[in-house]
Amino acid sequence: MALTVTVPSPHRVTWWENIINTCGNMFLFVASRNDLSDWLAATKPDNSGEALAIERTPHVAQPANELMLNFDHERPLGDDMSHHSNKIGLSGPFWEFQAVD
Length: 101
Fold this sequence. Notes:
single chain, alpha+beta, 3 strands, 40% helix
């Protein structure tokens, strides 16, 4: 059985506004893509999001997390996150991060 993670929110700009809320609510863990299909059919969410294997999940936020405990840490730019997403094989509008003012 392959555990799948769904990222239901495509709102990349709002991810940074409340990072605790984002991290606490953006992942849905299901046992398989079939279970995900069943959940989507039952709940009919506004945004179905994107699904990926759990093994890929830590790599998605790697640029944002790797130096976050440093005193002078700054969030990566949207372009840097978009480039990283493409580099690890996540492409398309869902994975394009936008600049945060």
